[in-house]
Structure formats: structure tokens, C-alpha cells
Amino acid sequence: MPVIEIQPSIYWIGVNDHTTDLFEGIWPITQEGVSYNSYLIDGEKKVLIDLAKSIKADQFFRQISEICEISQLDYIVLNHMEPDHTGTLGLLWKLAPQATILCTPQAQPMVESFYGITERVQPVDDGETINLGQLTLKFFHTPFVHWPETMMTYETSSRTLFSCDAFGSYGALSGTIFDDQLNDFDFYLKQALRYYVNIVAKFSSMVTRAIQKLADIPIKIIAPSHGLIWKNDPQKIVDLYQTWARLANGKGDRAVTLVYGSMYGNTEEMMDAVAQGVAQAGIPVEIFDLRRTHFSYILPALWLHQGVIIGAPTYETALFPLAVQLLDLCHRKAIKNKKVAYFGSFGWSGGGQRELEKWATELKWELTDTLVFRGAATLEDLKKGQQFGREFAKMLKEDLV
Ligand code: FEO
């Protein structure tokens, strides 16, 4: 996509990635794609802000060349070292012999370890400014949004915040780059949440700290390094981030994430009865089949909703492995303070419930109810399942009043 001037002398020179299937080697983006937004200031000094993944090098260098010769670059600002934003650095470094890298002191050793670069690297302090003539850059250290070396860069005259991962989303840009020129705005909001929960949410307290740090800065445009540029309503994504970050410690909304797996359909049949009970009690339920849904798409619901119901059979005297993998990921991603109920079928010995109880303790989730049954559910079992769902939903309603 040709470059776009987002403010006088400031250009979006990003690239779309429709090739990568798994972001970070984990999170599916085959359908959605992703953008690596990079920015070029073409003033008295020529400054590049964040780069692109290495597989996009040709396209990325062509984007720069639309504005200036690569060899003319004066500064390369690295807000964050993850290679989706620095993968082209090694080559760029050779093509821009006058350029100085600006990054946090924490990023400096990473510039060496990732790219073997030790010269022309200038660490910047928190709050430090660099005068570019008519424009001025100010740097704000924002550790752990997403890695410890992360910072954001603010251009003072245009009031543009280059926020890197923060406020970004999955989803390649579809013809436009701004939040006010879309007809699929909800898609990007959904992808912003998925990106937040997959990538950033573990560090939610640092997100809150970063937002507090930036609170007094007048922001006209938020230009992240993935997804939409927030020009029409930058406060919207900041507010969403504040809400999502608060969920790390607080209660979620009054809704249920029902996650289930099944080997031969017995636990699945019970799932329908349980879901019916939850819905009858007037509580929304989002249902995910573990066998067919990547965890990336389940985590956002788990993050948002207070209630979790796990339906999983016993498998070789323990819990169905896909459920275990999900719970392990919840632990790694620090999804806390949930109310959980468990149901599942067993063939001969049981054991799924026992393992689920261990995970609930590990995760500090409150296990409120369990329902296990042997083999296929009888009609009586299914009625119990319906009641189990109703009771869980009722408890959730009362708990969150
Ligand atoms: Fe978009 Fe943490 O990299």
C-alpha cells in the first residue's frame, strides 16, 4: 500500500503481512493478517520509527524509498525490540550508515544480541527530548508494554503518540489506515482485544501504569505499530485498554465462557443441557469447542467474562488434554479471579474432576460446582446438567450484584 501522510511531514510507511500463519509462532492470523506500521518523519532530520518483520524487507525498503533515500536516514527509533518491529534492522543498518539508533538503555544489549549491532546506538532517558528542527520527539519509557525495554515516542507539535504494541491489533489494514474511514470497525475492535489478551494482558498492571504516565499529555493521534491509526477518537482505545487492564484483578462481566471438549459426544450432549440452563437464567454464554477452536480465540472471552464452565471428559484417569492445555495457558497468561464449574463424562475410573480441582487451586479460580457422569448421560443426568447451568448462572447474577 503506498505511503500515507498522517500529519505534516509524518508518514505511515507500514506493510501488511498476509503470509504469516502464526503470530509469535503461536497465535493464528491466517484469516486476519497483521500490519507492521512503521513511520517516517521527513523533516530537517529523517527519522524512522519502528520497522517491520524481516520477511517484509523488500516491501518495507520500497516504502522508505518513496519518501527519501535510505542512506539519508538520521535516526532509527526502536520503541520495542520484538522482531516483528525490528526484523529488518540488520540490513537497514548497512543501508543507512549515518543513522543512529534511539532506544531505551534496556534495549541496547538486545540490539546487540538480536542483530550484532554495537555502534551508533544511543540510549534515551525517560522524558528525554530530541529536537528535529520543526518537530520534537519525546520518549516515554513504558516497560512491559510489551517487553521490559519498551518505550513510546511522542511528537510534540503534531501531538502524535507512536505507541508500538500498545493500542494495536491483529488484522491487516484493508485499504485505509484510520479509525474513521472503515466499514468494519468492529472487526478491528475484536482484533484489538484478541491482541491485548494474547500479547499484552499478562502485563496489565504495567499497561495501567503507562496510561497513567501519559495521562497529562495531549494526544491528537495514536499511531500504533499494528492495526488502525486512532485519529478520530484516540481516547476510545485508551478507555478500552484501561477497562481491559482492570480485568486483570477485578471481576469480569456477568457472562459465561463455556469451553468444552468431547471424545465421543457424551460430554458434548451434556454441554447443550448446561448451556440451556445458563441461558434460561438470563446470562449470556459464549461456547467454544476445544477441538476446533484455537486458544487465541478463547482467551478474550475468558478475560472478559466472570464465569467459566469447563466441560471435559476424563482421559486416561486425568483431564481431557486439550482442557489441560487451555488451563495451563490461562495460568501463563495470568487469567485470575474467575468462578468456575466443571462437568464431564468418564468411562471407568474418573479422574478428570480431580485434575480440574488442582488447576482451579493453581489458578485461584473459585470452583463452585461439579457434575460428573458415567458413559452417556441419561435423561435424568441431562436434567441435572440443565439445573447445574441454571444454578451457576444464578450464583453469578447474585455474586455480581
Ligand atoms: Fe508487535 Fe511485542 O511486538
CATH architecture of the largest domain: 4-Layer Sandwich
What structural category characterises the helix and strand content?
A: alpha/beta
Strand content: 15-25%
Bound small-molecule species:
MU-OXO-diiron
For the secondary structure, the number of strands is: 23
Write down the Rg: 24 Å
Number of domains: 2
Number of helices: 12
List the strand order in the largest sheet: 1-2-7-8-9-10-11
- The name of the CATH topology of the largest domain is Metallo-beta-lactamase, Chain A
Shape: elongated
Summarize the amount of helix as a percent range: 25-40%
Instruction: Determine the N-to-C terminus distance.
Output: 50 Å
**Main sheet properties:** 7 strands, mixed
CATH class placement of the largest domain: Alpha Beta
CATH superfamily caption of the largest domain: Ribonuclease Z/Hydroxyacylglutathione hydrolase-like
Poorly predicted residue ranges = none
Write the layout of secondary structure elements.
Blueprint (H helix, E strand, L loop, with lengths): L3 E4 L2 E3 L2 E3 L4 E2 L3 E2 L5 E3 L2 E4 L3 E4 L7 H9 L9 E3 L5 H4 L2 H7 L4 E4 L4 H8 L5 E3 L5 E3 L4 E6 L9 E5 L4 E5 L20 H16 L3 H10 L7 E4 L9 H13 L6 E8 L5 H15 L4 E5 L5 H10 E7 L2 E2 L2 E2 L1 H12 L6 E8 L5 H12 L2 E9 L4 H21 L2
Parallel strand pairs: 8-9, 9-10, 10-11, 15-16, 17-18, 17-19, 19-22, 22-23
Antiparallel strand pairs: 1-2, 2-7, 3-6, 4-5, 7-8, 12-13, 13-14, 14-15, 20-21
The structure holds MU-OXO-diiron.
MU-OXO-diiron binds next to helix 2.
Explain what you see.
34% of the residues lie in helices and 25% in strands. With 401 residues, it is α/β, with parallel strands linked by helices. It folds into two domains: 245 residues, Ribonuclease Z/Hydroxyacylglutathione hydrolase-like (Metallo-beta-lactamase, Chain A, 4-Layer Sandwich), CATH 3.60.15; 141 residues, Flavodoxin domain (Rossmann fold), CATH 3.40.50. The chain has a seven-stranded mixed β-sheet with strand order 1-2-7-8-9-10-11, with no helix packed on it. A hairpin with a 2-residue loop joins strand 20 and strand 21. Helix 5 packs across helix 9, helix 8 packs across helix 12 and helix 10 runs parallel beside helix 11. The protein is elongated and about 80 Å long. The mean pLDDT is 97. MU-OXO-diiron binds next to helix 2.
